[in-house]
Amino acid sequence: MFEAPEALDATEMTAKATIRRQVTVPLRFPDGYATSARVMTFDGLADGKEHLALGLGDWQRALTKSAAGGRAPLVRPHSECLTGDVFGSQRCDCGPQLREAVERIAEQGGFLLYLRQEGRGIGLYAKLDAYALQDDGLDTYEANVALGRGEDERDYTAAAQMLLALGVDRVRLLSNNPDKAKQLEGLGIDVTQRIPTGVHLSAANVRYLSVKASHTAHTIELPLAE
Fold this sequence. Notes:
The chain is α/β, with parallel strands linked by helices. About 35% of the residues lie in helices and about 20% in strands. It is built from 9 helices and 7 strands, in the order αβββαβααβαααβαβα. A hairpin with an 8-residue loop joins β2 and β3. It starts with 9 loop residues before the first helix and ends in a 10-residue tail after the last helix.
């Protein structure tokens, strides 16, 4: 798991990012759901990657209400998953989580952060290498370690920078992953509420989801086996 360097406090780690461009993009998903997003790019992100923020629904009103002491905007940091998000892989739940998050955030106003950290931060090729090891019996975390990588190498410093550049210092976090909340809190973002996503179960991902729930305390309630 990521740990913030002791030499830097949260303000120093998240002070320098700025919005470089905004553009409106109409979105349409394979099931027909459509909305529009204000897509924002950034300068000064700590890892130098091309992460995106999507303002969905009435995100500006959500910011105004939050600044006045109302409820925080709904935010999901979503890690890029080419296989799930684009090709519809059933080995994970990433594609359905992305689709769910866009609609839920659009209904309430907030942001989806699309973070370029494939395979829990190990990259696309290494993720596919890990899949091969999973086919031989290792679970998703064991496979990463067997490749000489961390169980989860994702670092949410850039996510915190993006939020602060957007004027967001408090969020309702749409995520099953407690590490996201822990990291964002350590980087100066007040997580006022943790909201789990739905459970997107398939025959191919049941072990993957089970291990996330048991090993890293993801808030996933799987149905009992009959």
